[in-house]
C-alpha cells in the first residue's frame, strides 16, 4: 500500500509530547506562530483511523460563473461534537490548558495528493475578522508545506508540516497574514490536517 510507505512513524500507541517544548517564531510585532515538530508520536494509527472513520465530504463551490470542486475533502466537528479519535480530545485539552484559550471546534481536511490544496486565505469568517485568535493545526500523513505571507504583500514563509507536527497561529495572524497549502507537482501521499479553533472562528 503506497500510503504505508509515506508514513515513517512506525508502530506504537498515539502519544503527545509536552507542549513546553514549543518554539515561537514571531511574524510581526502582533502576529506569531508556535511550532512543535513531532508533537504526536504513534501517528500512523491516527492517520489510518481518521482516513477510514471520518465522514469526509467532497464539496463544490460556486466560483465566478461556474461550480468547482473544492480541492480537498472536509469534515467539521462543531462545538460539543465528539472528536473522531481520543488523541484529538487529548490534544484539544492540552492546547486549551497551554494557551488558556478554549479550543471548541475542529475542522479536518484530507489532501488526497499534491493536486489537493487550500488557496491563500486567513481564517477570517466570524470572530477572526476582528479579534486576535489562536488556530492550532496538527498534521498527520505526508508532509506538506504551509505558506504564510503578510496580507499586504511581502515575502512568503514556508513551513514544512510533517507527520505529527503542530503549528499554532496566534495574535492577529488571521487578519494581517494569509496562509495556504499550495499544490505540488512532487509525488506526495495523502495528508490530514486537524485545525482546532475557539468558538466563532472559521
Ligand atoms: O491544511 C492545513 O493545515 C491548513 C488548512 C486551513 O488553513 C484551513 O482549513 O483554514
Ligand atoms: Fe486556514
TrEMBL record:
This is Alkylated DNA repair protein. InterPro entries: AlkB-like (IPR027450), AlkB-like_sf (IPR037151), ALKBH3 (IPR032854), Oxoglu/Fe-dep_dioxygenase_dom (IPR005123). Signal peptide: none annotated. It comes from the Bacteria. One of its GO terms (biological process) is DNA alkylation repair. SUPFAM superfamilies: Clavaminate synthase-like. It comes from Actinokineospora fastidiosa. Pfam families: 2OG-FeII_Oxy_2. Residues 102-200 form the Fe2OG dioxygenase domain. GO terms for molecular function: dioxygenase activity.
Amino acid at each position: 500500500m503506497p500510503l504505508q510507505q509515506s508514513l515513517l512513524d512506525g508502530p506504537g500507541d498515539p502519544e503527545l509530547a509536552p507542549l513546553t517544548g514549543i518554539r515561537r517564531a514571531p511574524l510581526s510585532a502582533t502576529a506569531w506562530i508556535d511550532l512543535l515538530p513531532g508533537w504526536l508520536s504513534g501517528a500512523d494509527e491516527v492517520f489510518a483511523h481518521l482516513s477510514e472513520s471520518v465522514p469526509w465530504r467532497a464539496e463544490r463551490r460556486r466560483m465566478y460563473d461556474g461550480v468547482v470542486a473544492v480541492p480537498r475533502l472536509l469534515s467539521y466537528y462543531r462545538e460539543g461534537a465528539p472528536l473522531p479519535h481520543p488523541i484529538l480530545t487529548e490534544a484539544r485539552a492540552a492546547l486549551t490548558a497551554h494557551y488558556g484559550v478554549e479550543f471548541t471546534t475542529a475542522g479536518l481536511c484530507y489532501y488526497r495528493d499534491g493536486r489537493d490544496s487550500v488557496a491563500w486565505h486567513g481564517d477570517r469568517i466570524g470572530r477572526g475578522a476582528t479579534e486576535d485568535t489562536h488556530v492550532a493545526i496538527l498534521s498527520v500523513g505526508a508532509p506538506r508545506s504551509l505558506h504564510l505571507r503578510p496580507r499586504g504583500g511581502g515575502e512568503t514563509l514556508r513551513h514544512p508540516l510533517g507527520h505529527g507536527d503542530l503549528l499554532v497561529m496566534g495574535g492577529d495572524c488571521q487578519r494581517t497574514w494569509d496562509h495556504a497549502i499550495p499544490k505540488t507537482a512532487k509525488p506526495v501521499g495523502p495528508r490530514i490536517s486537524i485545525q482546532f479553533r475557539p468558538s466563532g472562528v472559521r
